[in-house]
Write a structure and sequence with these properties.
CATH superfamily: Vaccinia Virus protein VP39
Order of helices and strands: HEHEHEHEHEEE
Number of helices: 5
Radius of gyration: 15 Å
CATH architecture: 3-Layer(aba) Sandwich
Strand content: 25-35%
Structural class: alpha/beta
CATH class: Alpha Beta
Number of strands: 7
Shape: globular
Number of domains: 1
CATH topology: Rossmann fold
Strand order of the largest sheet: 3-2-1-4-5-7-6
């Protein structure tokens, strides 16, 4: 894994084997950020990364000009790795160790962009958009992106505005 573009372009991300996350592939990540460059300006903004895993997407956002990222993951190994990597590279990332569903179950700060990469087979994956919209986590005019597998569909969700598929990686976009 590596950071694809921006200030930290080429920086390798060597996560410990204790992190059981499935990081977004470089191909999927590059495709996502190509879309974002034409769809959304996140420069200088505070962003939210849910199910952060290795922190792969958080680092990419910071490298490309986001002001800060709050990364949420329940695994202690992810929490420790993200905080250490961010500190060692002077990245403005705050990692929160929490169950994402419980975290989203209460109202919090609103963000202009939220990225969520839950385990593809998670039984509650379809609840994520409603938790975010019901509890006002997304700013008006903001963008929610959920990465998911082909077995998940949000096609009937009223806030879905776009869907892209890249091999086994799917991104659904909500406003």
């Amino acid at each position: 894994m590596r950071i694809i573009s921006g200030k930290f372009k080429g920086k390798k991300i060597v996560a410990p084997k204790s992190i059981k996350a499935r990081p977004t592939t470089d191909f999927g990540k590059e495709s996502l950020f190509n879309i974002l460059e034409h769809k959304f300006d996140y420069q200088g903004l505070d962003l939210l990364d849910l199910f952060a895993g290795t922190g792969n997407i958080s680092y990419e956002f910071i490298s490309r000009g986001a002001k800060s990222v709050t990364a949420v993951d329940m695994a202690l190994s992810s929490y420790k790795f993200i905080n250490t990597f961010a500190h060692d590279n002077s990245m403005n990332i705050k990692c929160v160790k929490a169950d994402v569903f419980k975290y989203l179950g209460k109202s919090g700060k609103s963000y202009p962009l939220i990225f969520a990469d839950p385990p593809y087979a998670h039984k509650d994956i379809n609840k994520i958009p409603d938790l975010i919209f019901t509890n006002s986590w997304l700013e008006v005019g903001g963008l929610l992106i959920i990465e998911h597998g082909e077995e998940t569909s949000f096609e009937n969700h009223p806030r879905l505005v776009d869907h892209r598929e890249y091999s086994r990686v799917n991104f659904s976009f909500f406003e």
